[in-house]
Specification:
Blueprint (H helix, E strand, L loop, with lengths): L4 E2 L5 E5 L12 E7 L7 E9 L12 E6 L2 E7 L13 E5 L5 E6 L9 E9 L1
Antiparallel strand pairs: 1-2, 2-9, 3-8, 4-7, 4-9, 5-6, 5-8
């Protein structure tokens, strides 16, 4: 799990999870990025999730993504397969108020618990 890292200029920050996956025992929501406090300024952020090829492409076994600001879900979606994921041209763009808790979770089922996934994030202070 990753946290917020300030860039040298002080006006941007980033976070990345690296490759994350679960084990075969229990499906779970996996926290990929957790930033307890985004700082003293509002942020404009770009989030780019990525996923490997699905372990199981059967119905009900898709990976999902949930973004929470201050424990409120602001985006929650599932991907049907690797071609449906946001790994190439699509970036999620959000406004995050100052001093917010930001968490990005991977949602998964027993059929895809070991599928690799991750997220990259770049924030611009406003």
């Amino acid at each position: 799990m990753s946290s917020q890292i300030l860039l040298s200029g002080g006006d941007k920050w980033y976070s990345y999870s690296g490759i994350v996956f679960g084990d075969v025992s229990v499906p779970a929501s996996i926290s990929m990025v957790l930033i307890p406090n985004t700082g003293l300024r509002d942020s404009y952020i770009q989030i780019q999730p990525f996923f490997s090829t699905p372990i199981s492409a059967s119905a009900g076994n898709s990976l999902g993504l949930e973004i929470q600001i201050d424990n409120t879900t602001i985006l929650k979606q599932a991907y049907k397969d690797d071609t449906d994921s946001l790994d190439s041209n699509n970036t999620i763009i959000l406004f995050v108020p100052r001093q917010s808790k930001l968490e990005i979770l991977s949602l998964n089922t027993a059929g895809n618990n070991t599928q690799e996934r991750g997220v990259n994030l770049l924030g611009y202070y406003l």
